[in-house]
Every structure is written in structure tokens, then in C-alpha cells.
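Before drawing any conclusions, I looked closely at one protein's amino acid sequence and its C-alpha cells, quoted below without any editing.
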Amino acid sequence: MKKNKHLNVLLYSTALLASLSFATLIQPQASVRADTVTEDSGDSSKDGQAQYEPVDFTKVNFPDQGLRDILTAMAYKVDPEWDGKQFSSDMLSSMQSIEALDPDDPVKDLKGLELLPKLYNLSLGAGSEVSDFSLLPKLTYLKMLDLEGINLEHIGPKIFNRILLPS
């Protein structure tokens, strides 16, 4: 029984990532949103990284407390003197992998992830209660998606229609 449930989670994760890849192919999107790149000569800093406009760290942009806690810890790793108000270009560039694995501080809403232009890996663990994955096609840099800890039984196959069919 447990093996069957693990297989279902693996199949849902694989199908979700495949549909995300397909949705990215059928929807023309830039790899970096034009409104987040600072206009300067060459759109890159001296070390070759793109420069991004700061993103306000508000409850409007990031409504989920579990996600806010993870992003706060990531921001302080980049800048221990961070004021908690905006993510700088360096912070945005460094936010490439999010692992929401703490069952005591679950992630319930992914809103705001679309503002992280370099998000490459998203892992949601036990206790995460995300049920709306419709913003995944907007995460054009996302290549790795781990949903092993998510109860996908309540989502069902309708999720794939929401990802593949633009609203």
C-alpha cells in the first residue's frame, strides 16, 4: 500500500513537471522577465550576472508565512544586515533552490515564487499543503520539482488542465 502511494506521488510529480515543460514550450516566455532586469550597458554586472530590480518583501507579494520564513532565512544568508523590506538583485540571483521540508512551518501558497527570476529547484516536503500549482508555468527557470511530501490525492488530474491551458 505504501509502495503504491509512493509510486502515485512519483507519477504525479513526473507528470506535473512534464506538463510544466510542455506549457513552457507552448507559451512564449522570456527566460528572465524584462520588467525585472535593470537597464544598463549589457544588462549584467561586472561578474556577468544579470541585475534585477529589487522586489518588495510584503505579504501582498508573498502571502504564505511558511514561504516567507524560508525566503527570510535565504536573504539573511546573502546579507546579514538585511532590513527585511526588499530583496536586492544579489538576493534574487541567489534564490535558486527552495526546500520547504519543515512540517511545523508548511507552505500552503506558492504566490510570489514568480518574482524569483533564478528559481531552479523547488522541493515541497511533508506537511506542505499547496493545492494550486497554476503559477508553475510562470517559473521559466524551474528545472527540478520535488513533490514527494505533498498529498497529491486531493489535487487529481485537473491540475494538469490548469497548467496546460492558459487562462
In short: The longest strand covers residues 97-100.
